[in-house]
Structures are given as C-alpha cells and as structure tokens.
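re: that chain from earlier
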Amino acid sequence: MKIKVTPGKTTSNIFLQLGLRAAYLQFDVAEDDGTPVNGDLLLDRPDMPGPYRRGVMAKDLLMVPPVPFRLTFEAAGYLPWHYGGQQWQAKEGLIMLRSGETLRLSIRLKRSL
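^ sequence. v structure.
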C-alpha cells in the first residue's frame, strides 16, 4: 500500500505493524586447548528452506530471528558441531529464543581425522 506523506502536514489513520525484535547468539569457538577457530554457522529454520550459512569469527555476536531454528558450526579440519549434540535433529537441538534474549555458547571443536 502506498502512503503519501507531505512535508508540514499530518498523515493520519496509518497503522504500522513491526516485526518481532531480534534475538542474539553470542559465541566463543575454539579447539579443546582454547585456540580460537573461525568458521561457518548454519541456521536451519523448520518454517523456511535452508540452511542459511554465514561466516563468523571465533568470538562474535550474531542477531537471529526469535523463531525456532537449529544451529551447526563448521570449520575446515574439524568435525561439525551441532547445538543439542547427538540429539540435534530432535527437540533438544531446537533453539527457541524470545525477542531481546541472548544465548551464550561456548563451542569446543574436535579435529577430524
């Protein structure tokens, strides 16, 4: 819908519906010995085809939608890390954050053979 806004005049009877505020992931990714590891986060939402992949630094803060999603971290030379561990594809692997909420994750990677 188009709305005409004129300088110096009041535009009335307009209602804006804003989406939900974002949630956040704050993470620290490293090897078992504490060496930082950069890589890719994969976010997979059940309500959208995906996953969405984004490169991230070892210590980062990422804005995410406040809707259910699954999270995987991948880096060359390391096994993938899944939120929820072995049960990442079950209910235990589903992250459900509220608007304005922050989930802090300490991710420790294991080298692939």
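DSSP finds no helices and seven strands in the chain.
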